[in-house]
Amino acid sequence: MPVSLHEACQPLALLLGEWHGSGRGQYPGLTEFEYREQVTFSHVGKPFLTYSQKTQNVFDSQPLHSEQGFLRIIDDKKLEMVVAQPTGIVEVHDGFYASNPESCLINLHATQVSGTATAKPVEQVQRLLRIADNVLTYNVSMAAGGEPIQQHLEASLERVPSS
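Structure (tokenized):
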């Protein structure tokens, strides 16, 4: 039996579902790259959304990156997000959102970025997500390895129709 979306999550119901698309990235010391991506936002009836992301190489379909997280709605403007990556990095974000039934904007700034002893150092992360016309776009900016904060990733994904 399907679980009802928690009342606190109603303003971000537009995120729910599976999204597929492509993106590209760049950063000092990296060759510019392209990727295919799958993002899923779901819920379990509690006052948070779950987040899952996977990317793969556009040329050979090999896995590139993945991350898992939780998006907690604090009130009618504020939210928090926690993201864990298999590279040993964890991001803790504060942010704000604005939404209506057709569009959504989420702006997140990491208040903490922590890593395991073997993770590459990342000092700062910002995430900007937008949904309009059933298309999810995002930008991720990052400060890592002594570089200042700058654009790292951008992508455009379309909602996968539910079966």
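Strands lie at 17-25, 33-42, 48-57, 63-73, 78-84, 89-99, 103-115, 122-132, 135-144, 150-159. Residues 52 and 68 are 5 Å apart (CA to CA).
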